[in-house]
């Protein structure tokens, strides 16, 4: 008997015979293609509690980080450095105060302990404030250099969140500095596809055709999944920019805001479909105008 796996929509798929039945409606066709692709993926290696949004978000964030590192992006160390610096400082302060209190009488150590408690609270409050107002749910920030006729640097930032609401309509914005080979021709002003301009009857294929070549493999990357998705949602804010001349010249800048139902990434047993997440994220980067590293080559930092 051929091995089977369970797709995120709950359908059991035989891996040796992918689904090939054509559906009449556009949403059914997208679901069929997704199921066929899932049939070729390995079985989920990460199992999460599918009732815990925090755990699901953490697993999806890990896949996002791994994919971008595989695309030759070097992650920024600013946030980890701040976390480690404030965390270790608070631990060292607490440990020093404890050691001091063991060497002197308790009454004599009270002033030092009071200062240590206040210092520890300040450091932990600073760490909390950094995460809330500076980091703001940032999953990945990094850059990579590519060799074209000159050295170009791609900067990418991804902020993720989860919500119990259904996926919102996708919103994509391009700057006036869009390169000729990007998904749209260079406009005279920023081009935006916002929820207000997307009618409920607009299909994912129509949205993609406004942005890129209809033959693109990521033709459904900006769709919110099947039309019956009701939440919860994994929401992604992607910011992409390309510069040259050590950041002095802006070549391309875009922003993508899109969400997918977590049920399309996590099956009924809690298995996380890494392949589906990678294909979706790769499509978003392509729609945002990212040049594939293999197309033009990368340069070591």
Automatic annotation (TrEMBL):
<dbReference type="InterPro" id="IPR009582">
    <property type="entry name" value="Spc2/SPCS2"/>
</dbReference>
<comment type="similarity">
    <text>Belongs to the SPCS2 family.</text>
</comment>
<feature type="region of interest" description="Disordered">
    <location>
        <begin position="1"/>
        <end position="36"/>
    </location>
</feature>
<dbReference type="GO" id="GO:0006465">
    <property type="term" value="P:signal peptide processing"/>
</dbReference>
<dbReference type="Pfam" id="PF06703">
    <property type="entry name" value="SPC25"/>
</dbReference>
<dbReference type="GO" id="GO:0045047">
    <property type="term" value="P:protein targeting to ER"/>
</dbReference>
<feature type="compositionally biased region" description="Low complexity">
    <location>
        <begin position="14"/>
        <end position="36"/>
    </location>
</feature>
<keyword id="KW-1133">Transmembrane helix</keyword>
<protein>
    <recommendedName>
        <fullName>Signal peptidase complex subunit 2</fullName>
    </recommendedName>
</protein>
<dbReference type="GO" id="GO:0005787">
    <property type="term" value="C:signal peptidase complex"/>
</dbReference>
<keyword id="KW-0472">Membrane</keyword>
<comment type="function">
    <text>Component of the signal peptidase complex (SPC) which catalyzes the cleavage of N-terminal signal sequences from nascent proteins as they are translocated into the lumen of the endoplasmic reticulum. Enhances the enzymatic activity of SPC and facilitates the interactions between different components of the translocation site.</text>
</comment>
<feature type="region of interest" description="Disordered">
    <location>
        <begin position="159"/>
        <end position="229"/>
    </location>
</feature>
<keyword id="KW-0256">Endoplasmic reticulum</keyword>
<feature type="compositionally biased region" description="Low complexity">
    <location>
        <begin position="173"/>
        <end position="229"/>
    </location>
</feature>
<keyword id="KW-0812">Transmembrane</keyword>
């Amino acid at each position: 008997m051929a091995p089977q796996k369970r797709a995120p929509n709950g359908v059991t798929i035989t891996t040796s015979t992918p689904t090939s039945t054509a559906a009449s409606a556009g949403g059914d066709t997208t679901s069929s293609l997704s199921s066929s692709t899932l049939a070729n993926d390995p079985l989920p290696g990460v199992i999460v509690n599918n009732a815990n949004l925090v755990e699901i978000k953490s697993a999806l964030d890990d896949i996002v980080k791994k994919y971008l590192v595989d695309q030759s992006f070097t992650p920024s160390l600013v946030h980890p450095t701040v976390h480690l610096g404030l965390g270790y400082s608070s631990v060292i302060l607490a440990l020093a105060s404890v050691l001091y209190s063991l060497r002197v009488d308790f009454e004599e150590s009270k002033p030092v302990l009071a200062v240590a408690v206040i210092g520890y609270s300040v450091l932990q409050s600073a760490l909390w404030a950094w995460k809330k107002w500076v980091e703001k749910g940032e999953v990945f920030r990094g850059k990579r250099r590519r060799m074209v006729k000159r050295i170009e640097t791609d900067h990418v930032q991804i902020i993720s969140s989860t919500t119990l609401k259904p996926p919102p309509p996708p919103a994509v914005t391009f700057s006036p500095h869009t390169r000729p080979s990007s998904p749209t021709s260079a406009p005279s002003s920023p081009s935006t596809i916002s929820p207000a301009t997307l009618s409920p009857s607009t299909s994912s294929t129509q949205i993609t055709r406004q942005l890129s070549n209809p033959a693109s493999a990521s033709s459904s990357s900006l769709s919110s999944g099947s039309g019956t998705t009701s939440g919860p949602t994994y929401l992604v804010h992607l910011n992409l920019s390309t510069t040259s001349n050590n950041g002095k010249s802006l070549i391309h800048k875009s922003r993508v805001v899109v969400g997918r139902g977590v049920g399309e990434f996590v099956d009924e047993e809690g298995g996380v479909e890494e392949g589906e997440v990678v294909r979706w994220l790769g499509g978003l980067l392509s729609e945002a105008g990212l040049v594939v590293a293999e197309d033009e080559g990368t340069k070591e930092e």
